[in-house]
Design a protein that fits this description.
24% of the residues lie in helices and 44% in strands. The termini are far apart. The model has no long low-confidence stretch (mean pLDDT 90).
């Protein structure tokens, strides 16, 4: 629980739901992050995201983070939403805003970086069952609504 007496620090991140169509099915790219200090895998899956650098737009950050965390290159199709939440980290109160984009997979061999335990393509119909956080579930639902207009049949 956050300490209401301490000031809140703002953090900005960006990421995306990367999709690909294969054999008539839609898959989304999911990550299983490592714990604090690159410890063992966490007990949840999510979507790639990371901190904005001072010279980057949210879109540029999302593309960079997906490449760094998963090895995949993607193309932004549409802005999805901004998710806002609070948490405590090393005695600091954090107010975080994450901008999410819907992205089409272009190329790249999947390989997790040092922050990520596992990277997988997951059938979109099974993705929600792997998600733990409300914000991730909301972003996935929004992507499912928008995806049909982005995919050429």
């Amino acid at each position: 629980m956050a300490d209401e007496k301490k000031p809140w620090r703002r953090e900005f991140s960006a990421g995306g739901i990367v999709y690909k169509k294969q054999d008539g099915q839609i898959f989304v790219l999911m990550i299983n992050p490592k714990g604090r200090d690159y410890g063992p895998a966490e007990n949840y899956w999510s979507f790639p995201k990371g901190h904005l650098e001072s010279d980057e737009s949210a879109e540029e950050t999302a593309l960079r983070e997906i490449k760094e965390e998963t090895g995949a290159r993607a193309q932004v199709k549409k802005k999805l939403t901004d998710i806002k939440y609070t948490f405590k980290w090393d005695n600091d109160n954090i107010f975080k805003i994450v901008s999410y984009f819907l992205m089409e997979y272009l190329e790249g061999e999947l390989r997790p970086d040092e922050e990520i335990a596992n990277v997988e393509w997951v059938d979109i119909s099974e993705a929600a069952s792997r998600l733990k956080f409300k914000g991730d579930k909301e972003v996935l639902e929004q992507a499912k609504v928008i995806l049909p207009s982005c995919i050429i049949i």
